[in-house]
UniProtKB/TrEMBL annotation, chain A:
Component of the general transcription and DNA repair factor IIH (TFIIH) core complex, which is involved in general and transcription-coupled nucleotide excision repair (NER) of damaged DNA and, when complexed to CAK, in RNA transcription by RNA polymerase II. In NER, TFIIH acts by opening DNA around the lesion to allow the excision of the damaged oligonucleotide and its replacement by a new DNA fragment. In transcription, TFIIH has an essential role in transcription initiation. Transmembrane segments: none annotated. Belongs to the TFB1 family. It comes from Nothobranchius furzeri. This is General transcription factor IIH subunit 1. GO terms for cellular component: transcription factor TFIIH core complex. InterPro entries: BSD_dom, BSD_dom_sf, PH-like_dom_sf, Tfb1/GTF2H1, TFIIH_BTF_p62_N. Component of the 7-subunit TFIIH core complex composed of XPB/ERCC3, XPD/ERCC2, GTF2H1, GTF2H2, GTF2H3, GTF2H4 and GTF2H5, which is active in NER. The core complex associates with the 3-subunit CDK-activating kinase (CAK) module composed of CCNH/cyclin H, CDK7 and MNAT1 to form the 10-subunit holoenzyme (holo-TFIIH) active in transcription. Interacts with PUF60. It is found in: Nucleus. GO terms for biological process: DNA-templated transcription; nucleotide-excision repair.
TrEMBL record, chain B:
Residues 7-286 form the Helicase ATP-binding domain. This is General transcription and DNA repair factor IIH helicase subunit XPD. Its cofactor is [4Fe-4S] cluster. It catalyses: ATP + H2O = ADP + phosphate + H(+). PROSITE patterns: DEAH_ATP_HELICASE (PS00690), HELICASE_ATP_BIND_2 (PS51193). Pfam families: DEAD_2 (PF06733), HBB (PF06777), Helicase_C_2 (PF13307). It comes from Nothobranchius furzeri. One of its GO terms (molecular function) is metal ion binding. Residues 250-299 form a coiled coil. The keyword Repeat does not apply. Belongs to the helicase family. RAD3/XPD subfamily.
Length: 557, 761
């Protein structure tokens, strides 16, 4: 089909809906609804002339039902709007309906993101006055478009965000999430449970067995609603009540939980200090090899009430353990790594060998009296500064007013003499004479390194408002240049386009911003040298651009 | 630092010292000087163990001929290991300070289970190899064993004979069976320390049960069940523990008797067979029995060994009576005895009698005399040896019966017999049990007091200290109770007597089921869970009570609300499950989520687990943990206490309950940098007779304003307290008050102050 050819920019994009015969600006064309954007291309052309990302769309407006013209208007956040006219006589209404429905589903998903982005941008501008100024300098004065301005930065945000997502502390589960499903009587002998997505998520995370059941049964066997209804009716949820039927799909969950709990118990505890089993030094079985099994509470003799109480207690322990585990499950991997590295100190992971270090640590902890000891940290000596400015400025060259005794002088002279007499040039590693003489020249008075720089600070020469303006100029130029230089090496078409644009942006900046400033300075008879460095930077960029361009030309020809 | 304790140079491995530690060492020194026994109470977390070790080690170095050995008895394995680690620290300090190689040998001993490195193989190599000087913890012994291919257990057992310091559990000294094997030959000039000694009664009761079985015999399955039964009874009826030793009981059921019957039959058959093949063997045994137990008597009189209380003095002097000397006669005798016991179990009502009554009855009914009964245990041993029965564990039923026979005929006092036709909970099911209960813990510990030069009983909660010497029947030269000196009031005991609706809070029997009380208890926990950071531990008076309360909190939705603040973990009767819950509880405290542990006074958690720092910022004691008084065995024990020691029943029960309450709430404060709330949720705590029985270091901080608080008031006070405590607290704040440098310690006014710390009784 022919539209496949023009999905060039979007090979990976999923086309959700194609509507033919849609007019835009009185031109026939085809409307495409894709996963992330909506696009329209005129008939016979292989290019989209309209393309809006869903996140840019504020809302869709539709023509009233009875109207002859079936239209759909998209209003963007920028205030612009695009109107599509569904012109296919026979199916226009249906097409429109379909497009509308789909948009209705899609837009909210992106809205959040868009809003978030907007918020984020707003926040960044508010928090960072420099950035705000930059924004004003570049975007408001239309040196570059807002999109370009944010392209780089938001990337930063997004990247940062995704990175944050990775590192973000996993939100644990409220211990009381089951309590939040407060059943309400609905007045006609029934109960209403309010489930939110959060609670469901919590249930799934805490009780993987339920999730398993959900996957198995929904939606093939049960609807979601039925599933949850059964869940709440189940013996599983009301663990304290006695099972009413064996048909319960959750009875298996209960069994699994039981098994999980058992395995947890048999795993034993890592911390020997809380291991009640090995607490006592039982000698009853000593020498006989009979393991003294603990009296298991016999279930047979329990009354109904007792066993329900017992179930409640078990359930609470299990629930708390599961909640705790759900909170830390994600962290298992790094924790494992940590223990791996800690176990490299000669302890194999063998359980028998692995235990002592932990035990030792716990034992040491247990016998520690921190207040009886001197504090363990190496003692820091308070810095006693007689002249704090000397500390702040670092070593200063020795001044001639420091006296040396004649004895010192004689000694040092002797020392130097001695050194000189023993001096043996290391001839394999000397500099070439040219390099040496240039170094000497640079270090001699008048040389490059010894130039007496006019140490007159700029803040004494230039009025403050000029300074501020200059600062802004620097920031703006820096931003533009950053954009410019990031394009190199230019290896994609996109970058080519961008670099050209950036060059023109730079030129525009030079004309609209830098020139007026220079003129202003001249008018005030200040040293034009102020902008010299800026010009220099721009020039460097231009020359780079030219080199690149000529190369490209050469390659093309 | 180096201290001068009453003329003794003591190396103390820290740079600072608590004033009470100094005072404690002074008292200890006096006890050792007098070569007598002592009772010393000092709150946990004040460095009791290191003070003890420092002083006794210094004493040993100064007077190597006066004190040759320190036997340090503790209760749990972690406790034992902690002591050894502290000792190691001390020894390292010695090495550093004196710069000489010291030849001290110190080691821990534990059961084979904890020391075995080859569970399958029996490995006794290296049993007689002397251990080089040093400090050996359980893991060190295992390491050494692994390297050298020796069995760590036997190595340790051999080494304790020449070690300077031995750290092991009570069992090794108090359990007659094990003491006979392990500790019999320990030198007389030893100092014995029972740490955490408030449990001594309880341990004795446990030990006695196991002491009933002879060496090399285990309980067979059936009896173990009985043993478990009694433990469960204990748990259910008494909510465990320890009204000292009331249930050092042997329980004889029909099943026991049936098994015993089988044993006797087997014995008879074996005798028959041997008689046909090797009659000389039986004749040889007969001859030996005529000779009597002279050897054992000689050994005891020359005082080489620690006495075995199961083997009373009298029978050592006599020969086995003629009526049971031949094997067949003895078996016949056993049969008669067995038939008698069977007939006794056919009762319809509860019977309680003393040992002499029992003896009279047995004489009247089946003409069994007291004398042959006393020799029963020894005679059986001899027979089993003669018959060369390899699998002795099959004969434990008959062993148990014969032990019972010996004990019941030996001790006319201190034991009681109760025969119950059915369990209290199931009166319709006939399940007759004969309880043979020891009432007198001093029987087991007596040899220890008699043999060793100094026995120190020490713990954080012994109050009132004078009751122990009476119960354990010894005369201490020092009895002292030390308080914890504090630079800031880091504990906050509150007595919550009313709910917000003014309903009196109490766990007493009449109001147990009262919903208003349960609800108010729930509110207290709920409000606290919102105020207290990290961990809260709540104790209930018994397991059943906790189950009921948890169930009704669940129904009322209180637990759900608590879950909004913290995770909930609950102690169960299964130790493995509880360990898991405990670890998860600590994990939840560690990661900042916070948790609540619901637990039971007298339970495993209350006795063995500390909740330092954030693991326990508040302890709530719901109710007064009285022992269940309806048990006949307990009643018998109370009667015995009244008759024997003039301790009134109520006094004893209150003493016991308050000790357990203190034990529970004390779990939260383990040191001076720690802090925690102690909430006593029962109006009865406000009464002077109850309050007065709390340890002094808690009592001191209960002011009149916090005697009968409502839940709200308690929450307000807690908030205030917690906020204050959360402020940074450094060493400097403590210095000069609750923490001293050497110079401060040596100043005269401080010495005067310290003299007042010890609370002499």
């Amino acid at each position: 089909m022919h539209f496949v050819s023009f999905t060039m920019a979007s090979l990976s994009e999923e086309v959700l809906l194609v509507v033919k015969k849609v007019r835009q600006k009185k031109q026939d064309g085809t409307l495409y609804l894709m996963a992330e954007r909506i696009a329209w291309g005129p008939e016979g052309k292989d290019r989209f002339t309209v393309s809006h990302s869903y996140s840019d769309i504020r809302c869709q407006k539709i023509s009233p039902d009875g109207k002859a013209k079936v239209q759909l208007q998209l209003v963007l956040h920028t205030g612009e709007s695009t109107t599509f006219h569904f012109a296919n006589e026979s199916t226009s209404r249906k097409d429109w309906e379909a497009a509308k429905e789909l948009l209705q589903q899609l837009l909210p998903k992106f809205k959040k993101k868009a809003n978030k982005e907007l918020e984020e941008k707003n926040k960044m501008l508010q928090e960072d006055p420099v950035l705000f100024q930059l924004y004003k300098d570049l975007v408001v004065s239309q040196v570059i478009s807002a999109e370009e301005f944010w392209a780089n930065r938001l990337g930063g945000i997004n990247n940062g965000e995704s990175a944050a997502c990775e590192n973000k502390q996993e939100v644990g589960i409220s211990g009381a999430f089951l309590a939040d499903i407060r059943p309400q009587t609905d007045g006609c002998n029934g109960l209403r449970y309010n489930l939110t997505a959060d609670i469901i998520e919590s249930i799934f995370r805490t009780y993987p067995a339920v999730k398993q059941k959900y996957k198995e049964n929904v939606p093939h066997n049960l609807t979601e609603k039925e599933f949850w209804t059964r869940f709440f009716q189940s013996h599983y949820f009301h663990r304290d009540r006695i099972s009413t039927g064996t048909q319960d799909i959750f009875s298996e969950c209960a069994r699994q939980d039981e098994k999980g709990l058992k395995s947890l118990v048999t795993q034993g505890v890592k911390n020997p200090m809380v291991d009640l089993l090995s607490l006592e030094d039982k000698t009853l079985d000593e020498g006989y090899g009979i393991s003294s099994a603990l009296p298991s509470t016999s279930h047979a003799s329990r009354t109904v009430k007792e066993s329900s109480n017992f179930a409640i207690i078990k359930r609470f322990n299990h629930h708390s353990a599961m909640v705790l585990a759900a909170g830390s499950r994600k962290r298992d991997v790094p924790a494992d790594q940590a223990s791996e590295t800690s176990s490299t100190d000669g302890n194999s992971r063998d359980s028998d060998f692995f235990q002592p270090p932990l035990k030792k640590v716990k034992l040491q902890e247990a016998i520690e009296y921190e207040d009886l000891q001197q504090e363990n940290r190496p003692k820091t000596v308070a810095l006693n500064l007689k002249k704090s400015d000397r500390y702040a400025h670092g070593p200063v060259p020795l001044q001639s007013q420091q006296y040396t005794t004649s004895q010192d002088i004689i000694n040092s002279v002797n020392y130097i003499k001695h050194e000189m007499s023993n001096y043996k040039p290391n001839l394999t590693q000397v500099l070439s004479s040219a390099a040496a003489s240039s170094a000497i020249a640079a270090l001699s008075p008048g040389g490059v390194l010894m130039q007496q720089v006019a140490q007159q600070a700029i803040n004494q020469m230039v009025p403050t408002e000029i300074q501020a303006e200059l600062k802004h100029l620097y920031v703006a130029a820096g931003e533009l240049l950053r954009h410019f230089w990031t394009c190199f090496p230019v290896n994609t078409a996109f970058l080519e386009e961008k670099v050209t644009k950036m060059k023109s942006n730079l030129e525009r900046f030079q004309i609209t911003k830098l020139r007026p400033f220079q003129e202003k300075i001249q008018r005030q008879y200040l040293s034009t040298n102020l902008t010299g460095h800026l010009e220099c930077m721009l020039q460097a960029a231009y020359s780079k651009f030219h080199i690149w361009q000529t190369r490209r030309m050469m390659r093309k020809t | 630092m180096k201290l001068n304790i009453d003329g003794l140079l003591v190396y103390f491995p820290y740079d600072y010292i608590y004033p009470e530690q100094y005072s404690y060492m002074l008292e200890l020194k006096r006890t050792l000087d007098a070569k007598g026994h002592g009772v010393l109470e000092m709150p946990s977390g004040t460095g009791k163990t290191i003070s003890l070790l420092s002083l006794i080690v210094a004493y040993q170095r100064a007077f190597p001929l006066e004190v040759t050995k320190l036997i340090y008895c503790s209760r749990t394995v972690p406790e034992i290991e902690k002591v050894v680690e502290e000792l190691r620290k001390l020894m390292e300090f010695y090495a550093k300070e004196t710069e000489e190689v010291n030849n001290f040998l110190a080691l821990a001993l534990s059961s084979r289970k904890n020391l075995c490195i080859h569970p399958e193989e029996f490995d006794a190599v290296g049993r007689q190899v002397p251990l080089p000087a040093g400090v050996y913890n359980l893991d060190d012994l295992k390491d050494l064993g692994r390297r050298k291919g020796w069995c760590p257990y036997y190595l340790a057992r051999y080494s304790i004979l020449h070690a300077n310091i031995v750290v092991y559990s009570y069992h090794y000294l108090l359990d007659p069976k094990i003491a006979d094997l392990v500790s019999k030959e320990l030198a007389k000039k030893s100092v014995v320390v029972f740490d955490e000694a408030h449990n001594i009664g309880k341990d004795l009761q446990r030990l006695w049960l196991s002491g009933m079985s002879e060496p090399f015999l285990a309980f067979p399955e059936g009896l173990k069940k009985d043993f478990k039964m009694s433990k469960r009874l204990e748990k259910l009826l008494f909510s465990t523990d320890n009204v000292c030793i009331d249930s050092m009981s042997v329980n004889i059921t029909r099943r026991t008797l049936d098994r015993c019957q089988n044993n006797v039959d087997t014995l008879q058959n074996t005798i028959q067979r041997i008689k046909e093949t090797d009659a000389a063997k039986l004749r040889e045994e007969y001859r030996r029995l005529v000779e009597g137990l002279k050897e054992a008597n000689v050994a005891r009189e020359t005082d080489v060994y620690l006495a075995n209380p199961v083997l009373p003095d009298e029978i050592l002097k006599e020969a086995v009576p003629g009526s049971i000397r031949t094997a067949e006669h003895f078996v016949g005798f056993l049969r008669r005895f067995l038939e008698y016991l069977k007939s006794r179990l056919r009762v319809q009502h509860v019977v309680q009698e003393s040992a002499p009554q029992f003896l009279k009855d047995i004489f009247d009914k089946v003409c069994i005399d007291r004398k042959p009964l006393r020799f029963c245990a020894e005679r059986l041993q001899s027979l089993l040896r003669t018959l060369e029965i390899t699998d002795i564990s099959d004969f434990s039923a008959v062993t148990l019966i014969s032990n019972f026979a010996t004990l019941v005929s030996t001790y006319s006092q201190g034991f009681t017999i109760i025969i119950e036709p059915f369990e209290d909970r199931t009166p319709t099911i006939a399940n007759p049990v004969l309880h043979f209960s020891c009432m007198d813990p001093s029987i087991a510990i007596k040899p220890v007091f008699q043999r060793f030069q100094s026995v120190i009983i020490t713990s954080g909660t012994l109050s009132p200290v004078d009751i122990y010497p009476r119960i354990l029947d010894f005369r201490p030269v020092t009895m002292a109770s030390f308080t914890m000196t504090l630079a800031r009031t880091c504990l906050c005991p509150l007595i919550v007597g009313r709910g917000n609706d003014q309903v009196a809070l109490s766990s007493k029997f009449e109001t147990r089921e009262d919903f208003a009380v349960i609800r108010n208890y729930g509110n207290l926990l709920l409000e606290m869970s919102a105020v207290v950071p990290d961990g809260i531990v709540a104790f209930f008076t018994s397991y059943v009570y906790m189950e009921n309360i948890v169930a009704s909190w669940y129904e009322q939705g209180i637990l759900e609300n608590i879950q909004r603040n913290k995770l909930i973990f609950i102690e169960t009767q299964d130790a493995a499950e509880t360990s898991m819950a405990l670890e998860k509880y600590q994990e939840a405290c560690e990661n900042g989520r916070g948790a609540i542990l619901l637990s039971v006074a007298r339970g495993k958690v209350s006795e063995g687990i500390d909740f330092v720092h954030h693991f326990g910022r508040a302890v709530i004691m719901f109710g007064v943990p009285y022992v269940y008084t309806q048990s006949r065995i307990l009643k018998a024990r109370l009667e015995y206490l009244r008759d024997q020691f003039q301790i009134r029943e109520n006094d004893f029960l209150t003493f016991d309950a308050m000790r357990h309450a203190a034990q529970c709430v004390g779990r939260a404060i383990r040191g001076k940098t720690d802090y925690g709330l102690m909430i006593f949720a029962d109006k009865r705590y406000a009464r002077a007779d109850k309050r007065g029985k709390l340890p002094r270091w808690i009592q001191e901080h209960i002011n009149d304003g916090s005697l009968n608080l409502t839940v709200d008031e308690a929450v307000q006070l807690s908030k205030h307290f917690l906020r204050q405590m959360a402020q940074p607290f450094s060493q400097v704040d403590q210095l000069g008050l609750s923490l001293l440098t050497l110079e401060q310690l040596e100043s005269p006014e401080m010495l005067k102050k310290i003299a007042q710390i010890a609370h002499q009784t």
